[in-house]
Amino acid sequence: xxxxxxxxxxxxxxxxxxxxxxxxxxxxxxxxxxxxxxxxxxxxxxxxxxxxxxxxxxxxxxxxxxxxxxxxxxxxxxxxxxxxxxxxxxxxxxxxxxxxxxxxxxxxxxxxxxxxxxxxxxxxxxxxxxxxxxxxxxxxxxxxxxxxxxxxxxxxxxxxxxxxxxxxxxxxxxxxxxxxxxxxxxxxxxxxxxxxxxxxxxxxxxxxxxxxxxxxxxxxxxxxxxxxxxxxxxxxxxxxxxxxxxxxxxxxxxx
Length: 255
Fold this sequence. Notes:
Layout: H1 4-11, E1 37-45, E2 48-59, E3 65-73, H2 75-80, E4 83-91, E5 97-106, E6 109-118, E7 123-130, E8 135-142, H3 150-159, E9 167-173, E10 178-193, E11 196-206, E12 217-224, E13 231-238, E14 244-254
Antiparallel strand pairs: 1-2, 1-14, 2-3, 3-4, 4-5, 5-6, 6-7, 7-8, 9-10, 10-11, 11-12, 12-13, 13-14
């Protein structure tokens, strides 16, 4: 079974950042973000609904942002491998990481992971507490200015006018490693979800194969090709025994 602490991070929806884009991406002035919203997703694995995810974007103190992600397994998956994950991210106005906390209850495992970004010293402090084994792992990394955890790294994509054939590269960390993650715009596609058709741009985020994660795999993201730039679908392609995981939008609410 895929580790849902990583699984949860991939579900996290892309939010706007007004961080200056790299030279090969153009800012889309017609994008209506940022604004508070709630997005609900359905997670499909092996052709059945395996879980649900909700992501809420809200203002934090000052001009920063708070992202709250909740992931829960459902159905037969819940019977043999129960997942209840809660992920909280605080960031600056342009989604540079400040801190994050992941409370992951997965099967018999229960752990709390924390990332603390020291942006003045360009350091990251990582702590993972296994509450079952009563064991703690700590690590410190050197990071680049405005380093993102994975949701922040993907955030730039939603506010950009990244056209097929172009790409951006952003500093991203998972606490164990710092990498320059590449996101590539590949094609325009029509996606049908729950009887509704979306005109989208398909992107690929290159985070596997020893970039950020050792495991082999591919992550594709479909974002609506309009002013809202809503992430309507994710597809994680992994090898045996995991296979494909598909995450599709159920509902968007502006709050």
